[in-house]
């Protein structure tokens, strides 16, 4: 028979699982939005933009953390011949985090 403590622990775990899932969704949305921002900077068309945004989301899975995403986007923009600084990419990443949170909180 489960006691109150067991139910409380199960409820806390459910809350943690939900928080982790929400963070995952926010990061994926943020990375897609960052990819779209970078694609505009690089002058990509609509189909290329969607493909590029997906590749930025995938970059998150190759290595944990934001640094791989920043490196990818910064390198790709510079390689396309557009002048951008790491600070600009980091600022855009922060802005896209806020935007992703707003979008997802509106979805729930």
Count, helices: 4
Oligomer: single chain
Based on CA inertia axes, which overall geometry fits? elongated
What is the β-strand count? 0
Gap from first CA to last CA: 34 Å
Write the element-wise H/E pattern from the N-terminal end onward. HHHH
Low-confidence stretches: none
**β-sheet strand percentage:** under 5%
Rg computed from alpha carbons, rounded to a whole number of angstroms: 18 Å
Largest sheet: none
Task: Name the structural class.
Answer: mainly alpha
Average pLDDT, rounded to a whole number, is 88
> Level of helix content?
over 70%
Structure description:
This protein is mostly helical and 108 residues long. 84% of the residues lie in helices and 0% in strands. The protein is built from four helices and no strands. It has helices at residues 4-42, 46-62, 67-79, 86-107. Helix 2 (46-62) runs antiparallel to helix 3 and helix 3 (67-79) packs across helix 4. The longest helix has 39 residues, at 4-42. The chain is elongated. The two termini are 34 Å apart. The model has no long low-confidence stretch (mean pLDDT 88).
Give a short synopsis of this structure.
The chain has 108 residues and is mainly α. It is 84% helix and 0% strand.
Topology:
Layout: H1 4-42, H2 46-62, H3 67-79, H4 86-107
Keywords:
84% helix, 108 residues, single chain, elongated, mainly alpha
């Amino acid at each position: 028979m489960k006691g109150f403590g067991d139910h409380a622990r199960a409820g806390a775990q459910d809350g943690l699982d939900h928080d982790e899932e929400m963070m995952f969704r926010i990061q994926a949305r943020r990375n897609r939005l960052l990819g779209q921002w970078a694609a505009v900077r690089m002058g990509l068309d609509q189909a290329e933009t969607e493909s590029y945004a997906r590749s930025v989301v995938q970059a998150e899975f190759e290595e944990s953390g934001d640094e791989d995403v920043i490196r990818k986007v910064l390198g790709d923009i510079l390689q396309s011949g557009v002048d951008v600084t790491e600070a600009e990419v980091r600022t855009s990443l922060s802005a896209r985090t806020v935007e992703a949170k707003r979008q997802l909180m509106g979805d729930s």
